[in-house]
Specification:
The protein is of the alpha+beta class. It has helices at about 1-10, 35-45, 80-95, 115-135, 150-155, 175-190, 240-245, 315-325, 385-400, 420-430, 435-445, 445-455, 470-480, 485-495, 505-520, 525-540, 545-565, and strands at about 25-30, 50, 100-110, 145-150, 165-175, 195, 200-205, 210-220, 225-235, 255-265, 275-280, 285-290, 295, 300, 335-345, 360-365, 375-380, 465, 470. The chain folds into three domains: about 1-60 and about 175-255 and about 360-400, FAD/NAD(P)-binding domain, CATH 3.50.50; about 100-170 and about 255-350, D-Amino Acid Oxidase, Chain A, domain 2 (2-Layer Sandwich), CATH 3.30.9.10; about 460-565.
């Protein structure tokens, strides 16, 4: 595809219809991992970039995924190229952001009779993962191990039933939101213009159909404007058909098959191993340790709802619990504290089960639809985002007649340039060890910048969110340096309010800090806190029991009464681009 685009595309547009020079070279729509990855790659190659995101960075699937940079053994038989590229890019991501990745050992028990059929099943698993082992060196993974039933139960006594054996295999975890933030921060520091909470309302085209820019509206201030550019990249994931329609194209021009995936997170770490098992329909699901929590995931269902309001249902939550508790009943001893959901922008396929859809990616050149200069990025995975962004940026630089090589696989993301010993943060900042460890994980080398804030103003060393934990200094840092303007934004960057208290202990204080850092009316702080709490409550309700729900409603009512405010719900605004 790249070779075809390089030889057949016309030159780029360098003036708008009025004859004025365009503002930037490339306009990227979408602040997920693909959009931020392209913005960073373009900025690294010396192009002028503007990025627009209608919600927040990592608002969609990128920030609501399973949080793994994995090779995808489940794709090995049908899409081995996906497994190869995911493993390859996993190795690159470890190199450029080592602080963000952590190893997740998986256990896959095999149940059945201790007979010939059972032995054949174990041998088949062993042979399959022997093939997967060939890809493991690409991502510094450990080879699989075949285990007996007794060895499995020794590793994880919480397993029930009679596993006749199983295998271990190795994957990597990551905070998807932090990965997106690191990409966008690097792009900004290299000159990119980034606007969050700003919706693109129109993709502008000349009389001959060529794209020359976008019209936008800031959803917080209602400010409107136009930004002109030579090329426009639609990297809006599940919103891609809607975004293409803003340029006058039929939604089929950027067709996807959106698939909803939800996760449930529990208030404690139940095991040191991820456990893979099968749901009632045969789909593979998992229980996974994630820092101080446990995560159940994931579903895969066609989705036709509001992309700005993806909420898990009780049915989906029960589906996951039913699957996992059959082999690991201890999950019922933990308290469900929330859910998250995202929509995968899967490549279109008719008549195929959702779980069997390709996880490949594709670049759509809308010159074929009469809109030269507009491209859509379709499909893809978190684990291979960097490669997808490189392919898109290769097409872009070829339009400008350049041959600047890609460096995103060797140039460190912010925070990944050097390692920082969390004990330094403990000694110099006086913080608890767990606070220092969490801070270093999220910010890597840049955790020292947060430390410097604490040393200049010791008051900012106070822990605001005990569950994670998050300090005032970190909240102010992400507001000043990472585009956070709401409590929800801060939560996405720091995990504030995502622990056992659900934000009840920290959202109000965080809101006041955000309002002060932004220099807005102090009354804005409680409003931001209540917006976050109402949104968090909606995400929790499908997973909590009636007693929890009543207690949560009471706590919210008390907070609202103390503040003298009316209940504040999620925005009713519908997408317009």
């Amino acid at each position: 595809m790249d070779a075809l685009l390089r030889t057949q595309v016309p030159s780029v547009l360098d003036v708008d219809p009025s004859g004025r020079a365009v503002d930037v070279d490339v306009i990227v729509i979408g602040g997920g991992v693909n959009g931020t990855g392209v913005a960073r790659d373009c900025a690294l190659r010396g192009l002028r970039v503007a990025l627009f995101e209608r919600n927040d960075i990592a608002f969609g699937a990128s920030g609501n995924s399973s949080g793994m940079i994995h090779g995808g053994p489940r794709y090995l038989t049908a899409n081995p190229d996906v497994t190869y590229t995911s493993c390859l890019d996993s190795g690159h991501i470890q190199r450029i952001a080592p602080h963000l990745l952590f190893r997740i050992p998986f256990l896959m028990p095999v149940f059945g009779e201790r007979d010939l059929a059972g032995a054949l099943a174990l041998t088949a698993y062993d042979a399959f993962f022997s093939l997967y082992d060939r890809y493991q060196p690409l991502k510094r993974g450990k080879p699989h191990t075949r285990l007996s039933g007794e060895e499995l139960r020794a590793l994880e006594p919480g397993l029930v039933g009679c596993p006749i054996g199983g295998v271990t295999f190795d994957e990597w975890g990551i905070d998807g939101a932090r990965l997106c933030i690191a990409n966008v921060v690097d792009a900004m520091e290299r000159g990119a213009e980034v606007r969050v909470h700003t919706t693109v309302t129109e993709v502008l085209r000349r009389d001959d159909g060529r794209v020359y820019g976008v019209r936008y509206r800031d959803r917080r201030t209602n400010e409107t404007g136009v930004r002109t550019g030579s090329l426009v990249v639609n990297a809006t994931g599940a919103w891609a058909p809607l975004t293409a329609a803003l340029g006058g194209l039929a939604p089929e021009a950027a067709r996807i098959r959106p698939g909803k995936g939800i996760h449930v997170f529990l208030d404690r770490r139940l095991t040191n191993y991820a456990i893979a098992t099968n749901a009632i329909d045969g789909r593979q699901v998992f229980l996974m340790p994630w820092q101080n929590m446990s995560v159940l995931g994931t579903t895969d269902d066609d989705y036709y709802g509001d992309l700005d309001d993806v909420i898990a249902t009780e049915d989906e939550v029960r589906y996951l619990f039913q699957a996992v508790e059959r082999v690991f009943p201890a999950i019922r001893n933990a308290r469900a504290i929330g859910t998250w959901g995202g929509v995968r922008p899967t490549l279109w396929g008719w008549g195929v089960n959702e779980d069997e859809l390709s996880r490949e990616h594709a670049i759509v050149d809308h010159r074929d639809h009469g809109a030269d200069g507009l491209y859509s990025m379709i499909g893809g995975k978190l684990a291979s985002y960097r490669l997808f962004a490189q392919e898109m940026t290769d097409v872009i630089v070829s339009r400008f007649g350049r041959d600047t090589p890609c460096r995103t696989h060797v140039a460190s993301l912010p925070g990944g340039e050097e390692s920082v010993d969390p004990m330094r943060l403990v000694v110099e900042g006086g913080m608890e060890a767990v606070t220092a460890t969490r801070l270093e994980y999220r910010h890597g080398a840049r955790s020292v910048r947060v430390l410097e804030r604490m040393r200049k103003n010791p008051r900012e060393a106070a822990v605001v969110c005990v569950c994670e934990p998050v300090t005032e200094a970190e909240i102010r840092y992400v507001v000043e340096n990472e585009l956070a303007v709401t409590v929800e934004d801060v939560s996405r960057r720091t995990r504030l309010g995502l622990g056992a208290c659900g934000g009840m202990r920290c959202a109000l204080r965080c809101g006041r800090i955000v309002a002060d850092a932004l220099g807005t009316d102090p009354a804005e702080g409680p409003r931001l806190a209540l917006e976050f709490l109402k949104s968090a409550t909606r995400r929790r309700l499908p997973a909590i029991n009636p007693d929890q729900a009543r207690q949560e409603a009471l706590a919210l009512a008390v907070i609202q009464a103390e503040l003298g405010t009316q209940p504040v719900g999620p925005s009713e605004e519908k997408p317009d681009g």
